[in-house]
Amino acid sequence: DQQVKQNSPSLSVQEGRISILNCDYTNSMFDYFLWYKKYPAEGPTFLISISSIKDKNEDGRFTVFLNKSAKHLSLHIVPSQPGDSAVYFCAASIYSGAGSYQLTFGKGTKLSVIP
Amino acid sequence: DGGITQSPKYLFRKEGQNVTLSCEQNLNHDAMYWYRQDPGQGLRLIYYSQIVNDFQKGDIAEGYSVSREKKESFPLTVTSAQKNPTAFYLCASSPGGPSAYNSPLHFGNGTRLTVT
Fold it and tell me: Which of A1, B7, B91, B103 is deepest in the core (most CB within 10 A)?
């Protein structure tokens, strides 16, 4: 059973417009959420995160929104640039005991920004 | 520059052979992880280690083994018991400890393993 879901496998956006990537989760015990960006044949790189006690976190062109009641978060990229074209993974963190935390990843959304 | 080094980038093996993937980090991180990525799939956790000489199974540990003899190194062995070993393998690390929950993972650039 998938605990972190990214229901859109792909998204195409015109350069300069807003990109909105969505993520839903089922486990209410998740307390920290992260977005990673991945280019082909490379490892994911951390993009932005949000604690479950907040509903918004902003870093430059990237903003993450969290709606705990709906168990939904979204990543907004404004304005979108061709270099943003990548696969974006949503991840959720949960305490797994003995001082350790585990990340659960969604399947990713491939964003294509068209010049 | 600090980071995580995975080698080799591409690896080919015959079915029935064990193969070991290397992962080295110079970030002085306590925690290290191995993930597997398949096409159209998210990252799935194979094994993780919070401290030297200790490791735990992740969600898909069957057919894999690891060791953590040094803080810097966390090699992954894909054994012949792994039924579908062809995949992209990613190693990651984090500081670990009490602040682990909000410490993003740092990933290597992965090893693509092909078993025929």
Answer: B91
